[in-house]
Structure formats: structure tokens, C-alpha cells
Amino acid sequence: MGHHPNATIPCLEQGFRWYGPGDPVPLAHIRQTGATSVFTALHQIPYGEVWPREAIHARLAKLRAAGLRWSAVESVPVHEDIKTGSGDVARCLDNYARTLRNLAAEGVHTVVYNFMPVLDWVRTDMRHVLPDGAECLRFDPAKFAAFEIHALKRPDAERDYTLGQLDAAEAFWRSLDTTARNEFIAGLTDVFPGCKLGLTLDDIRAMLARYANLGDAGLRANLRRFLEHVVPVAEEVGVRLAIHPDDPPFPILGLPRILSTAADVEKLFATVDSPANGLCFCTGSFSVRPDNDLPAMARRFGSRIHAAHLRSTQRFADGSFHEAEHLGGSVNMPAVVRALLDEQDRRQATGRADWQIPFRPDHGHTMLDDLAKPPPPNPGYSCLGRMRGLAEIRGLMLGLRAAETLTPLGGTGFSRA
Ligand code: DNO
Q1: CATH of the domain at 106
Q2: Nearest C-alpha to atom 1 of ligand 1 is from which residue?
Q3: Residue 191: what pLDDT?
Q4: What pLDDT shows up at residue 195?
Q5: Which pLDDT tens digit goes with each residue over 99-141?
Q6: Ligand 1 residue neighbourhood (C-beta within 6 Å)
């Protein structure tokens, strides 16, 4: 854990995402943020292929040389064949299981993945300017409607929006000239999933077509098949699988959605009831729905939370939201972090060696000197905003721990016990 005196206070493991050697934020800088570990993946390996042990080993060596642990793989992507249940499902499932075995053999035991169809997370503005001049990611359903209706021309897309949203979509689209329209479209299609895939609109249409008749039940059945195949392997080799929730947590593009609410998480756990079948608790994703009670979910699902993404969002009446400061917005972060620390304490009390829950400040505002740099290839992943988030959450954790040894003074203050 490092040499700082605070290192002896049991906090969540402090992580930072690293996109690999091409990431403009080098490992040396990540180390200086105070993170002790990274969430990283072998992005060079195509979806559906096996991650060879040598490649995993080489990544580990790089991290070790930088003084960092590999606390979670984010992600081992699930191939569209598995999600759609078509194409070469058997090969993709086998390859996934082999990757888990190889990771475990190299000592990497936490694996984040998602089961979102076609696109990973979606935003409509990658550079929304906040009152203080920092930039954040934002989702505006009216803009997304404009994308679906005017750019993608998805049949019946209009049905998924309110009249007000449709009017706003129309006005937005009309306000753009051809260059601005192309930039807007590229902003949506180019950056998924956090790395540039350069999808065209036709690619997306073809990908959507594969889900045409699936529905929620079909996607859930395919998730079940995936879990039934890989969870036993994960159990055998000691891997903890951590599924990432839908982002945003409501249907988009007419696609099925299966992990947006607490009830969805219950269903997921019941599908294959094993501790290896766990959750990446992403407060940012879940917080977009007012019916998700984040601290309650952290408590209820604690034992199956294998990794956490801590960030917050600010919701607006028109259905839009933007990414707030890590301790701002609608998430009661102190209560969430308290719940996760309590979960760790429970694990520690049972003598479990792997009691620590790794988290990373998920996304961050683009701020300070980062504003003058070329926009990061992965929106949301410039360094300084994430460092701010990490520092704030570190302070929160230490504050919560310190408060454990204080007794309240009639509600007006605290004194040492
Ligand atoms: C967004 C991330 C997601 C996440 C994947 C996990 O920034 O939280 O892209 O990594 O959904 O598979």
C-alpha cells in the first residue's frame, strides 16, 4: 500500500483507469495522483479473442515497474455474438473462459465487463461547459433524438420521445450546418467504447439489426448463457466478475436494457447465484434514475460488489443529465462510501485476504491545464479532473474513518472518544 501514514487506514483501494501505452496520461502521472492501482485492459486484442498469458504478463510487468497494481481488468469485452446469441457463440464463450483462466494464472482476479448492446456508454456532448469553465460529459435526450431521427433514420425512433423532446430535437438539428452535423455524428459514433472504433452510421444500423427481434427477455437469456458458461470457470480459478450497469440506465436506440435498476441487479444475481457473479457498482450510471437509491443499493448488494466507479450526475427536468463533481450532484457519496467501507470491514472480519474493494474516480471534468491540451481520445479521461475526484474521495474515506473514533457533542460538533 505505499509508505504514507494514511496507508494503514483501511480505505477502498484507490484506482485510476489507464488505457494502455497509447494513453496520454502516463503511469508515472497516475502514480502521482496517489492511486495505488489501475483499471486497465489489453485494448489491442480484438473482441472475442483469447488474451494470451504473455500479453497479460507484459502488462503486469509495466504496471509493477511503475509501482502500481492491476486491481481490475476493465474490461474483457463481451463479443456481440454472445450478446445477440448469433454467429460463433461457442467459440466466443470458450475464448472468454480461457481469458479468465489466463488472467487468474497471472494473479489478476477482478474482471469488469458489460452487457450493453451495440454501444457502451452514450453521451451527446463531450465538452459541455460548466459555469466555472470546466468541461464535462452530458446527455441530452433531445440531441440523441436528433441523432436517431435525422442522422441514423431509425424507423419509429419518434415513438420513444415526448413531443417536447421531438420539438427540441428538430430545433437542434436545424441549428446545425453540414459541418456541425458531421461533427455531432462523429462525436457519438467515433468514441465507443471509450476507444476510437470509427463506426459509421451503416455499421450501427447493421449492429442494431442483429437485435431486431431479441427484446429484454432474449438479451437476458443470452446473458444467462454467458454466465452459465463463465461463472463456473471464474469460481474454479478465483476470478470475480463485475458487470457494469447500463449507461444511461434506460432504453436507447430501441435496444433491450437489462441492468438499470436494483430489481435488475437482483435478477442478475439470481440467474447464477454465485459470489463470482458480481457487480461493478457504478454510481454515475445508476444515479441517472431517481428511483435508484444508491446507498441502499450499496448496502443490499455489498457482498457482490467487486469493483466500484465513483462519480455523480446532475439530473434535469427535461431528461438531460451531466456529470457532476464527484462529491456533488445527486449521489449521496458519503453514504455510499460508508456502505462500501462497512462491507470491507465485514470481509476483513471473516479473515478474507481479498477484502479490499477497488474503486476508481470514473470520468472527471476537463479542467485547469488539461483544457489547453488536445481533447483526450477517451472523453472523460483527462488527468486533472479525475485526480480531483480521487483526492476528494480519499479525503472522504479518511474523514469517515476518523469520525469512527469521534463521539458527537450534542449535535453541534465532535470530540475524540
Ligand atoms: C465509461 C466506462 C465504461 C465501462 C464499461 C465496462 O467510461 O465506465 O466504458 O468501462 O462499460 O465494460
Answers
A1: 3.20.20.150
A2: 121
A3: 66
A4: 46
A5: 999 999 999 999 999 999 988 888 999 999 999 999 999 999 9
A6: 74-75, 112-114, 120-121, 193-194, 244, 309, 362-363, 380
**Residue 2 placed within a domain:** no
- Cα separation, 77 vs 13, whole angstroms: 23
Which atom of ligand 1 lies closest to the CA of 114? 12
**Does some domain include residue 180?**
no
What pLDDT score was predicted for residue 194? 43
Write out pLDDT tens, residues 337-371. Answer: 999 999 999 999 999 999 999 999 999 999 999 99
Is residue 83 within 8 Å of residue 115, measured between CB atoms?
A: yes
β pairing state of 69-74 and 37-40: parallel
Q: How many domains would you assign to the chain? A: 1
| Residues in the chain, pLDDT under 50 | 1-3, 194-195, 417
| Alpha-carbon span 227 to 232, nearest angstrom | 8
Domain enclosing residue 385, as ranges? 13-124+213-314+326-403
Residue 2 confidence (pLDDT)? 44
What residues are annotated to the active site? 244, 282, 309, 362-363, 381
Is 193 domain-assigned?
no
How many Å apart are CA 293 and CA 111, to the nearest integer?
25
Is 102 inside a domain boundary? Answer: yes
pLDDT digit string, tens, across residues 143-161:
999 999 999 999 999 999 9
Residue to mutate (ligand 1; options 73, 247, 257, 281; most atoms within 8 A of CB) = 247
